[in-house]
Model the fold of this input.
Amino acid sequence: MPVAGLVRLRKHQFSRQQAHGTKVAATRAYPFSGVPSVERNWTDPEIDSGSIDPTAAPFLGPGDFGADLAFNALAYNDVPIMLSGFFGDAVEPVTTGTSEAWTYAPASTTVDPLDEFSYEFGDDVLTDWFQLGDGVVESFEVTGPEGLGPLTASVNWRFGSASSTGSTDFPVDGAVPTPGLSVDIAPTFVYLKDGAIYIADTEAGLAAGQVSDALHSFTLRCSQELDLKRWANGAQTYDVDAYALASRAIEVECTFAKTADTVGVGSESDDWFSEQAVDRYIRFTFTSLVDADAGTPYSWTFSLPMRYYTRTDGEIGGNTVVILTGHAFYDPGAFSGVFKSTVVNTIDEADLGEAGS
Done:
């Protein structure tokens, strides 16, 4: 008889919630790797007990529930959970035939409502599954690798509640795991070979601002500081009652070959090595050879205004390269925002989870 608990039988199942505090059945299985971290925070009391060894039972503190997960090859259908989990705002796609267009334009001078997710994790041992609720993405990174292969992504989740199919005191809501869900067996991946980069002085200039024969790799980093609110409401639980978004940071790091666009007078490096910060606008586009609908390929575009903060030097093979890092800023002018993105794929709102009102 085989030993139970097989690594290859782990599954990650998610769904967007419609309301804080109400876990929902999963709607899609995702090809994440990684495991959740469920820290109960048992703590020994500081007492004089007449013993050099612990005597009194520990007390239970507020839990710390997270999950550092990875897409080791990012697919177009997996981008919305990352962007919705981070930016929120209950984005719903526009359907055209079999394609779905997800558009994100997060606010800067107001705070968009967060999208919260329920998460089911476990393996073939059905009496040992976790159900985590009120999940939001604290940070994520997307990397386009040297060699032009598929993009990878790391996604760092924070959850407000935890339960288990193996817990008497903290049982799951509903049937966990949600049956009938499987990962996509024929995903359409986002390849850097299908990507292009554009940089310009203005957003309007991006269309004519393609930087060719220069980009080796890139990393998009997004992080946000969340305050976890817990109130004494007589609920007899440590579950998080609300999240408050305190700050957000978005940056792009690009590794460039040395060309007239990237080094020398009038180049991107020149904009870094300047007396005053220079506003730049950057766009990445990825267009698949696979159609999401007839004549409409899978695609992903994101744009942001940025200013360069650092340059470092490196090498790839026998050639030197420059690594420039820009930080996004809120542009109240023509761009009217800090980040814009559109993903065209084939997952609909029901797949991600219905948006809350």
User: Anything to note?
Assistant: The longest strand covers residues 296-316.
